[in-house]
Amino acid sequence: MIRAASLAREAIDFGSTTGYPQLILALVHLSKREYQEAMAKATEGVAARPSCNGAYSIKASVLNYLG
């Protein structure tokens, strides 16, 4: 999980516009019970990938934990 977060942040720093790094970070934050951070990253991921079912699935998972 630490490696995934590190690589995702590195991809963001390099200017990735795919939305995948944000979605990975959303899952990392979710697993650490950092729900607000997870929601922020999931929202960024959906914004970058508005037609990706997987992005909406990750955001739905975060919303499920937020109630």
- Biggest β-sheet, characterized? none
User: Into how many domains do the coordinates divide?
Assistant: 1
Count of beta strands: 0
- State the order of secondary-structure elements, H for helix, E for strand: HHHH
Question: What would the principal axes of the Cα set say about the shape?
Answer: globular
- Report the structural category: mainly alpha
Strand content: under 5%
Binned, the helix content reads over 70%
Commentary on this structure:
The chain is mostly helical. It has one domain (2-66). It has 4 helices and no strands. It has helices at 2-13, 20-31, 35-48, 53-66. The longest helix is centred in the middle third of the chain and has 14 residues, at 35-48. The model has no long low-confidence stretch (mean pLDDT 95).
Structure characteristics:
about 70 residues, mainly alpha
Task: Kindly summarize this structure in a few lines.
This protein has 67 residues and is an all-alpha fold. The chain has helices at residues 2-13, 20-31, 35-48, 53-66.
